[in-house]
Amino acid sequence: MESCSAGEKEAVDRLGYFLKPAELFHRVAEKGARKEDNFILEDLAAILKHIESSTLGHDSEEDFEGLFEDLDLGSSKLGKTENQKNELIAKVLVHLDKIDFRLADTEADVLGDAYEYLIGQFASGAGKKAGEFYTPQEVSTILAKIVTTGKKSLKSVYDPTCGSGSLLLRVAKEVENVGHFYGQEMNPTTYNLARMNMILHGVHYQRFDLRNEDTLEHPAPEHADLRFEAIVANPPFSANWSASEVLKGDDRFSAYGKLAPSSKADFAFVQHMVHHLDHGATMACVLPHGVLFRGGAEEHIRRYLIDTCNYLDAVIGLPANIFYGTGIPTCILVLKKGREHPDEILFIDASQGFESGTNQNILRAEDIDRIVTTFRKRDSIAKYSHAADLSEIIENDYNLNIPRYVDTFDEEEPINLEDVASKLIDLEKGMSEINREIARFCDALGIPKPL
Fold it and tell me: Please, are residues 164 and 135 in contact by the beta-carbon 8 Å criterion?
């Protein structure tokens, strides 16, 4: 901006962008409600472009650059003709403009929660692709509560596969304040969703730093030297990655001596997160069950994390079919640098605690509470949890498969053979009497008796 008024400067400093009075939502909706001269498609396109251009030369420029590039006001899905598209969009804006959100009378984050709801609804109907950008809120809640245990505020929280940013924002609901949000997302459209999510939840542009690039292959240089107080993630399950020999010299992986397999990047994400974890901090990530017991390079990395580093703090088994797009059972790995319980690893088998849903299973409030409470108290509960000594892990050759540590086997009640034999004798007597009765009927009718 070559020059700007004091009002414009204040708006850009406060919000990161500036809108003219004529570009405000209410004014656009008013024009769309007219009987004549109500074409607003071009106005909307110009306003969105102006939002981005108003940030040029300011600290917020990078956070708003290309923010609306995926918004297609000319999409045929909105209508066949320009007038049909305009009519539909105007109708939506007019209806929204009539709603009194009572923003001044509530502490609820109305706009942010509405956006979160819409993302969730979109994810529920997006099938397999939904898992790429959205973590079910129930799982997000568990991760958030774990990494905020004992904390009232966080200096920073990081998600290396942040998707729509919902998991980062969920962490903020568990503490009074989060100083800064960091994240990286490979998909440009999802990256834009995440930035919008932050803005609509009232997170100031200077408090979030999200990057659009492949986390494993091209980690954000801006994050390279940062260490975070909390890390949460739901990485793509068993994704492909290069596992290039060049990466063996990368600080994130070099100490381990081996890279995760090219066909399963799960432990590569774990190594990346551990690298960025501050001392005394906690990370919690969702992974497929295979990371607990697969051999080869993954076993080598698992041993290093447990034996050499002693970072693994808990393993939590979740029910099958709770994620969008996949029915596989999953687990949560919790890792800490500077553990309060360095001589044990807590195992929780929460695989049976859920409510069956139409398309997927659902974690209920009581299921979430039981997981979190057990984690925080480190209780050993029969058929549910067990705090295993490190010696047990070694005895099992660093295989972390949960049934090795939490015995959920239900013994069958002993069978009383004498009682069974007595019932069989009674049954035989009854059958003999029936056969004699049938024979009497056959004699009376003059027909052959059955064998």
Answer: no
Residues 6+ away with beta carbon under 8 Å from 229: 151, 154, 155, 156, 157, 278, 281
Show me where the domains of the chain are located: 6-100, 117-404, 415-451
For domain 117-404, the question of CATH label 3.40.1360.10 is answered with no
State the Cα–Cα distance between residues 9 and 146, nearest whole angstrom: 41
pLDDT tens-digit readout, 174-228? 999 999 999 999 999 899 989 999 998 989 999 999 999 999 999 999 999 999 9
Give per-residue pLDDT as tens, 240-259: 999 999 999 999 999 999 99
Closest CA to 376 of 145, 217, 183: 145
Contacts of 30 (CB under 8 A, 6+ apart): 97
Question: CB-hemisphere CA count at 13 Å for 34?
Answer: 11
Laid out side by side, the sheet with 228-233 consists of 208-212, 177-185, 153-159, 228-233, 277-288, 330-336, 312-317, 344-349, 385-389
Measured in whole angstroms, the distance separating CA 412 from the mean position of its chain's CA atoms is: 38
What's the CATH number for 6-100? 1.20.1260.30
Q: What is the pTM of this model?
A: 0.84
